[in-house]
Amino acid sequence: MEARWSELIAADQAHVWHPYGPMPAAVAPLPVVGAQGVRLQLADGREVIDGMASWWCAVHGYRHPVMDAAVSEQLGRMAHVMFGGLTHEGAITLAQRLVAMTPDGLEHAFFADSGSVSVEVAIKMALQAAMARDPGRTRLLTVRGGYHGDTFGAMAVCDPVGGMHHLFAGTLREHVFAPRPPDGFDAPLDEAWAAEVERLAERHAGELAAVIVEPVVQGAGGMRIHSPACVRFLRECCDRHGLLLILDEIATGFGRSGTLFAADHAGVTPDILCLGKALTGGYMTMAATLCTRAVADAITEHGGGALMHGPTFMANPLACAAALASTSLLLDGGWAADVARIERGLRAGLADACDIDGVREVRVQGAIGVVQLDHDVDVAAATAAALERGVWIRPFRDLVYVMPPYITGDDDLATVTGAVVAAARAG
């Protein structure tokens, strides 16, 4: 690595705070100088396959010609314009497209600038709509094992015990937590779990505004997979008790779980839907919160008249251009075959991990592959083992997992799964 990069890494260690880490970072980050397809180009000359799709968002890979062209063309017209009192074609077209793509009944799109903020908006929507008819409805019901973001409203509905935000216990709004949904995509509805959720919903119905969950796949809270039957039950439970259903599909949306949206596995429409990550294919930060007409009407007519949120970069034109390009690529339909192919490759390639001492379970759903250990991962050792095989991964807690770009070819996928198995053995 050239001397300039040694100086830059020293400056990084001195001044840059990286995600979920101390200051300075315990391990110096790898410098990236470029990316193409599914590969990251490192400053020392190595190329590594990105098994993480840049935290699950770069589903089309890097430097995709359609994505590059869309952002470049938009940059030639305008990079940004405020959304208060103004509008532009990209935002209008994107809202129309998201309404058409998402489950029937979602009619309105609010654009935010990150997944966490889309959850904040969803919570505000639910509270304003519910309090319009009953000022006492100020809490949410959710399940253990969930993760919804790092801002304060979102943190409050993350798992308060096993989640990464337990340090903030006592400073966050206290919501109602049901047990984590039982594991198993193909499992029937667990009657004991359903009865406990029903009991909590009935007991707290007068103070609850909504239920919020990640459907089918819980992401950063533990990469757990549950049955669509659980999601259908929650929809029915909400209907019985007059609650709104919020589905957080920031991680699962746009094909990652095997259907375009994880709600499609269950055949349900939420009252509020959170989207992000793959929305822009990893090119720009952007998220969206969609809701039904009934939710919008409740806020507009009885909940104060206006939804009290307005990010500075709301509906940023560059981000809208990236989102339109990303969703256009998805609407071409090739993603479904690619995700199914990746799922088969993950199942085959990760099977060897089952025989490793210390591996508790191997899970695959769509383009998500997870190896869970019976101990916390030695992150440095696991990462090094994967890098030796030409793959970038980011283990956490007791998990070695991958969410590769959808364009990952079969040979590269085999390299990825081999790296995960090696990382699990090393970690």
UniProtKB/TrEMBL annotation:
It is found in: Cytoplasm. The keyword Cytoplasm applies. Substrate binds at residues 55, 147, 277, 310, 394. InterPro entries: Aminotrans_3 (IPR005814), Aminotrans_3_PPA_site (IPR049704), BioA (IPR005815), PyrdxlP-dep_Trfase (IPR015424), PyrdxlP-dep_Trfase_major (IPR015421), PyrdxlP-dep_Trfase_small (IPR015422). It comes from the Bacteria. Pyridoxal 5'-phosphate binds at residues 115-116, 248, 311-312. It catalyses: (8S)-8-amino-7-oxononanoate + S-adenosyl-L-methionine = S-adenosyl-4-methylsulfanyl-2-oxobutanoate + (7R,8S)-7,8-diammoniononanoate. The modification N6-(pyridoxal phosphate)lysine is found at residue 277. Its EC number is 2.6.1.62. One of its GO terms (molecular function) is adenosylmethionine-8-amino-7-oxononanoate transaminase activity. Keywords: Aminotransferase, Biotin biosynthesis, Cytoplasm, Pyridoxal phosphate, S-adenosyl-L-methionine, Transferase. The record marks 20 as: Participates in the substrate recognition with KAPA and in a stacking interaction with the adenine ring of SAM. It holds the Pfam family Aminotran_3. PANTHER family: ADENOSYLMETHIONINE-8-AMINO-7-OXONONANOATE AMINOTRANSFERASE. Belongs to the class-III pyridoxal-phosphate-dependent aminotransferase family. BioA subfamily. Catalyzes the transfer of the alpha-amino group from S-adenosyl-L-methionine (SAM) to 7-keto-8-aminopelargonic acid (KAPA) to form 7,8-diaminopelargonic acid (DAPA). It is the only aminotransferase known to utilize SAM as an amino donor. Homodimer. This is Adenosylmethionine-8-amino-7-oxononanoate aminotransferase. It comes from Svornostia abyssi.
